[in-house]
Protein: Ferritin-like metal-binding protein YciE
Amino acid sequence: MGLFTKDIKTMDDLLLHGLQDIYYAEEQITKALPKMIDKATNRDLATGLKNHLEETNKQIERLEKVFEKLGQSPSGTQCPAIDGIIKEADETAGEIEDKTVLDAALVANAQAVEHYEICRYGTLIAWAEELGHDDIVRFLTTNLNEEKAANAKLNTVALRKGVNKKASTSA
Structure:
């Protein structure tokens, strides 16, 4: 099922579909993060990914509350975008032998995921506000703020903690 399907007739339908999309995405991310953690050799990167895995589980719980407030059962709908981002990350990580270069790739791949989530949550918040669903906006905003913070931490690991520098000087 694509984003725009025959099942979507109203803005409420669109909001629900978007919530199902991000719910699915968050669940896929909880499956992908442990693999990234195992491959990370930079301590700050591994720690950051572990912390974000815990955060992601809390984000899923918040999304379940959002579904509940809307009188819906929590469910996901397949999201080809997040599946593609994760697939590309897996393929890239599998091709890189140098661990310092791999760490730089892991940061970039994690940021691609964060940027996707930031985009989705921002849109969902705008739709929920427009539809008067103020009771769910705070849950979505908390998730959005965590995604933005995770992205900022990844920037720090890449730039200030030396991941990119080490990768650029690798043989």
